[in-house]
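Case study B.
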Amino acid sequence: QVHLQESGPGLVRPSETLSLTCTVSGGSVTDLCWSWVRLTAGRGLYWIGYVCNKGGSNYNPSLKSRVAMSVDTSKNQVSLTLSSVTAADTAMYFCARTRLGPASRYSYYYHMDVWGRGTTVTVSS
Amino acid sequence: ELVLTQSPDTLSLSPGETATLSCRASQSVISSSLAWYQLRPGQAPRLLIHGTSTRATGIPDRFSGSGSGTDFVLTINRLEPEDFAVYYCHRYGVHPPLLTFGGGTKLEIK
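Model:
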């Protein structure tokens, strides 16, 4: 059974870079795609983006200039970095295994079938 | 930009009753990209339904999804105590490539 565990600093100062890691156990990062999603009380769930080991990534346009995701096959981990953070980036961050592919000529399927329990990040000085 | 509106914001029901949760899109949505998730405090979010109506692995048949175009519904029959949680729908669009969540519906015990 695949298990995901997010980890990170917990507290990040404004204007600095947030770095989170998602460690995958019971499965491999090589075959599928991996999404990052965050949850806030005021906004609910918010999609940050995804990365696929076999190539391809896509980020939310509103965060695109500040986000990077990567897959480390040697450690079986997925990472997220978010630069120039502000208080608005305070949230619980989740990683999720993602099924993504063409459903037809004009559409894709996309769903996240295994999630971690999340890690809380607070941006504050 | 597509917006998903979930209603109601909060639904108060008793165990054994049926919950009907709505997810309405501001423009037509391809059904393959419509999914539903359950969030309970302290737990990993759980995929319930994908492709509008396909139950995810291990999801009981009390949960069902339906809809097309702009209107989608998650129905939960015979509510059990563990079903009281927050539910989100999402849609993934290709042009532009963007995943959008609805605002969520909180299902609470009456």
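Chain B touches chain A through 30 residues (CB under 8 Å). The remaining cases will be described in the next quarterly update.
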